[in-house]
């Protein structure tokens, strides 16, 4: 299959590299030509930065840009690719954002967190496809199957739920790690001491119900420790961390108070 | 070495099982004799539930009970074990809580989260020891080395910092998973779809600075998605999750706003 990528960020880069194994990446578009070239060079594609350079002889155009930019991108490219299947890769953007401007609209959403310098295990990454046209849905499903064992046809509503859940499971848990690191850094304690704890917590939550795996002073309703730890945060002028500590502890306490 | 355990909960159980490999567990004390027996049977020890049954012919007494109970335990046992080394296993309880009642006081703190039905990798679990007497510190260090490659002599203040950090890295990240599961459960979406994301997020944070690994709408300052996701939570009457969503997103946004 012949594929064009719009965007040259983390998602575009990882997708292009993975798709290149079995398909042809024809063009990489970015408003910043240097960004386009950086990715295009890796996947033997043509780098472009003008919409009128878009080649309509492709099977699929993937918009992999920030959610905020998807609408302006589809508006600016649809007239050059009127009959091409065009998809976005966003969890929280509805299919209709494309479909309002373009009839062959679709979604190709990988549920994973991407960093430039880390390999992605595509075979295990869940992929969610959606399309306005039945034929395009079949095409996207086939394409997704060429990357991953875990392919699902999900509606925009289901995808939104997943993405919201992922914000808690991934973005917020990572921020918990970040806050944990700030706390030990301030006392010259080595953050790597917490690595076994972080990995065991994640392992537990993916092998059991995380509610049943909850531990800590808030779950036990240990008011002395809760008070002492809030005091420690207040002492170091970290009101931001203190507020999060209070709200998270309250949430955990209320969730477990009737369980004893 | 001859060791007695006070307590029969998760920490006491995992510690007793691990110590039994190279040492002798003499007694297991619990106010609930059945709890004491359950653990004592696993480690060939005597189960007791009366303080006057405590055998003073041991090298170490480990108090592995909830933080709140440590003070009353030391008060009730010190007269029966006046010359024994007695330690607690708590991150946030100061050495002085024991030392005020007992001269040979110490701490033996494993930085890990314990569940009844999961094996603990003791060799990789960081252990933190502290003692009032130099000789006891050397003894605890030797004992810790018999369990783990990662043994540290930490003050009560350093241990408190570590434990506070662990609450964020472990208890709060687990609650993020729990909230994520509640969100997908409400829409009959399978939580296991998020497993690769959870594991990759934890892996990233233990191989890089979690601040640099942050992703998501709050970090990008994507107000449309932030508004939409808060609305989704409000719609489902989950004000508790909405409040946490708002506070965490604000924290992430502020931490990254000056980075672009």
From TrEMBL, chains A, B:
Domain Pyrroline-5-carboxylate reductase catalytic N-terminal residue range list: 2-89
Keyword annotations of the record: Oxidoreductase
Keyword set includes Lyase: no
Keyword Metal-binding annotated: no
SUPFAM superfamilies, alphabetized: 6-phosphogluconate dehydrogenase C-terminal domain-like, NAD(P)-binding Rossmann-fold domains
All copies of domain DUF2520, residue ranges: 126-250
An example molecular function term from Gene Ontology annotations: oxidoreductase activity
Pfam annotation, one family: DUF2520
PANTHER family xrefs: CONSERVED HYPOTHETICAL ALANINE AND LEUCINE RICH PROTEIN
Name of the protein this chain belongs to: DUF2520 domain-containing protein
């Amino acid at each position: 299959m012949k594929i064009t990528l719009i965007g040259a960020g983390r998602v575009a880069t990882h997708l292009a590299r993975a798709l290149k194994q079995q398909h042809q990446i024809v063009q990489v578009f970015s408003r910043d030509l240097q960004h386009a070239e950086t990715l295009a060079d890796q996947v033997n594609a043509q780098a472009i930065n003008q919409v009128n350079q878009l080649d309509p002889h492709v099977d699929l155009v993937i918009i992999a840009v920030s959610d905020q930019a998807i609408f302006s991108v589809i508006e600016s490219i649809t007239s050059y690719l009127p009959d091409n299947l065009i998809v976005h890769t966003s969890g929280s953007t509805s299919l209709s954002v494309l479909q309002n401007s373009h009839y062959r609209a679709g979604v190709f959403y990988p549920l994973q967190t991407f960093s430039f310098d880390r390999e992605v295990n595509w075979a295990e990454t869940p992929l969610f496809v959606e399309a306005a046209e039945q034929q395009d849905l079949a095409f996207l499903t086939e394409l997704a199957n060429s990357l991953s064992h875990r392919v699902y046809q999900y509606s925009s509503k289901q995808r939104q739920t997943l993405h919201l859940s992922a914000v808690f499971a991934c973005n917020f848990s990572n921020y918990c790690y970040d806050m944990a690191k700030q706390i030990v850094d301030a006392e010259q304690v080595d953050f790597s001491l917490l690595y076994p704890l972080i990995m065991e917590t994640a392992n537990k939550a993916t092998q059991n119900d995380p509610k049943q795996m909850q531990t800590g002073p808030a779950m036990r309703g240990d008011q002395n420790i809760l008070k002492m730890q809030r005091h420690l945060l207040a002492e170091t002028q970290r009101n931001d961390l203190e507020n999060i500590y209070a709200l998270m502890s309250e949430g955990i306490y209320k969730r477990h108070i009737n369980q004893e």
